[in-house]
Design brief:
Layout lengths: L2 H4 L1 H15 L5 H15 L2 H13 L4 H5 L12 H15 L4 H8 L5 H24 L4
Helix pairs in contact: 2-8, 3-4, 3-6, 3-8, 6-7, 6-8
C-alpha cells in the first residue's frame, strides 16, 4: 500500500516532526544511532537499512554499527551514545528502567536534547509500525 500517498497530509506531519528533530541542535549521529536501534528492536528491515546507511554516511564505521545490538557489552560507544541506546531500549519496551535512564541522561544532555531524543525514539517506533504494517516489504 502506498500509505504515504493515501494519507499524505498526516504522514507528512510525521516526517516534518522528524525533520524538526534533526535540525533541533541535538547531535544527528546520536539521533540516527537511537533510530537504528529502535528499528532493530522493532524488526523494521527498511528502516534498519536506511539508518545504517545514514550512520555510515555520517562517518560511523560498520564495525561500530554492527555492535549496536550488543552495546551493553562493548566499549566502542561514548557515554552519550550508550545513554541514547539505553533510552531507545527503555522507551521502545516501556521498561520500568526509564526513570533511571532519564536521571543519567540529565548528566550528559540538556532538557531540550532529552525531549528531542525521546520524541525521536517514539516517532521512530510509530514510523517502524507504519512501514511494517502498511509498507513495501523490500
Amino acid at each position: 500500500m502506498e500509505y504515504k500517498e493515501v494519507a499524505k497530509k498526516t504522514i507528512n506531519h510525521l516526517y516534518s516532526a522528524h525533520a524538526s528533530i534533526r535540525t533541533s541542535g541535538i547531535d544527528p549521529q546520536i539521533v540516527a544511532l537511537a533510530e537504528l536501534y529502535v528499528s532493530q528492536i522493532n524488526g523494521c528491515a527498511y528502516c534498519c537499512a536506511f539508518h545504517a546507511q545514514e550512520l555510515r554516511d555520517m562517518g560511523l564505521s560498520q564495525e561500530v554499527i554492527d555492535k549496536i545490538p550488543g552495546y551493553k557489552h562493548s566499549n566502542v560507544f561514548s557515554k552519550k551514545q550508550q545513554l541514547a541506546l539505553e533510552l531507545a531500549e527503555a522507551v521502545t519496551s516501556l521498561s520500568e528502567k526509564i526513570e533511571n535512564v532519564k536521571a543519567q541522561l540529565a548528566q550528559h544532555f540538556n532538557e531540550r536534547e532529552i525531549v528531542e531524543l525521546t520524541t525521536s525514539i517514539s516517532l521512530m517506533g510509530a514510523l517502524n509500525r507504519l512501514r511494517i504494517t502498511l509498507g513495501d516489504k523490500s
